[in-house]
Amino acid sequence: MIDTFLLLKYLAVLILSTFKYILGVLALLASPQSNPLIDFCVTSFGGILGVFIWIFLGSLIQKTFIRYSVILRQKRNPTGSITPKKFSKKNRILVKIKRFGGVPILAFLSPYLLSLPIGCFICIAMESNRWRVFAYMVLSILFWGSITFGSKWIFAS
User: Fold this and answer.
1) Structure confidence at residue 41 (pLDDT)
2) Which domain holds residue 151?
């Protein structure tokens, strides 16, 4: 018989991993008497599901955001003249990331340092091929999950 509490715990971790992968991992690392293989599968599936949602369905969110920001920009500048693009601190950081390693480095660091939605949106801004971004993000999630839960399995024995 399936334990309802355990099922709800894994469902909550799966949903948590779609947004912030490291929080799902930490939640399962903190739980005693859990199977590292099941933990790896649940967090990895949640992370991959989140990456798929944010890369392929997140474009709708990006388009809405861009459309809304254009409307706000037109309200601020009613003359219709084009304002020159300003180089902000955020733009400079993105250029440095792109020069340093680009999408592979960002995808590698994204599950643990950034949240998955932010990492996916930045990667999509740098790379137009969504499947390549998806592959990099999935490989990163599988790498970090195998390192984390593999070490839990080794040290728990």
Assistant:
1) 93
2) 4-60+88-156
